[in-house]
Amino acid sequence: MSYKTKVSRNENITKLQAGYLFPEIARRKNAHLLKFPDAKIISLGIGDTTEPIPEVITSAMAKKSYALSTLEGYSGYGAEQGEKPLRSAIVSTYYKDLGIDDDDIFVSDGAKCDISRLQVVFGSNVKMAVQDPSYPAYVDSSVIMGQTGFYQKDVQKFANIEYMKCKPENGFFPDLSSISRPDIIFFCSPNNPTGAAATREQLTQLVQFAKDNGSIIVYDSAYAMYISGDNPRSIFEIPGAKEVALETASFSKYAGFTGVRLGWTVIPKQLLFSDGFPVAKDFNRIVSTCFNGASNISQAGGLACLSPEGLKAMRDVIGFYKENTDIIVETFDSLGFKVYGGENAPYVWVYFPGRSSWDVFGEILEKTHVVTTPGSGFGPAGEGFIRVSAFGHRENVLEACRRFKQLYK
Question: 119 in a domain, yes or no?
């Protein structure tokens, strides 16, 4: 027997299911490689960007990093909320005329990290609502914080989380009248994994629902720049949202910053807890305690992203991924599948009626050597779907689509 300490394990972490979705996919991919060592695997699974960061952005980061080796250019700890020029640029680029100020912006090392910091702010005595299906980090961070009961295998849900079903038949927008009152509503638009972007009318309903219930919306807008129609890109375009919502966002899927790490969260001064205390002040305290601000090098990159040349470069990269989505959508369309998403997001949501998502994932991996993501990994309403990511080099996307056509022709 090996030596054990007398420290008991955090019981909330023991409630988590198997592995986090993406490490589990990586595990299965590696097992597949052992079985087929010569297979040319194409990964359209995890939503990781593949195209190089535009040079206008990397050159600004290089310049900043070289400056750090000079007396004039060196800087140590920065402001916890982020450098003021970057916060101002975020406001003027994404929140112009929406009544958001520089000091409502908290610059961070990415939206995923902010989601967990927000959970620390909310604590363990709140009830969560999430879109079903949705990005797994919302549910898993809720479980770790102790906001939930145990996992109920029969319904594939954690107790004490409100799963808001988003299916094709309701336009991927939940029936809010059927939901019991939540404290915190996680809402992602355009949604990962379904790719659905909420309309102005739908978001107006959501804000009204939060007002009626005194709830707080955590609005994840990580894919807002992928919206091509006139759907709102920010929750703050909806009147009254500043009293019930905060918004988290990221440079990851715009500028290829998945490894650079830079995002931001907007918390308006009007957003108050039940005792009248501003949510932003508590978030500031958590940020000051648990975080020392985003890297000064990545912030220099963020500032370059928001320059006129940087914005054009980001739009070009997004345009490239959107062409990939068109190719994937056309492929599954031509094979007779019901296909959703792809228009306002880099994800294509393909329906395999009556089949298990993990079985379809396995079949595609086994027979085409392409990695996708099983829909059920995003929640019970994702069963029967797979998510195909459009992040990939063009030749890989074309080759994957050729293989899909061979398998399902």
Answer: yes
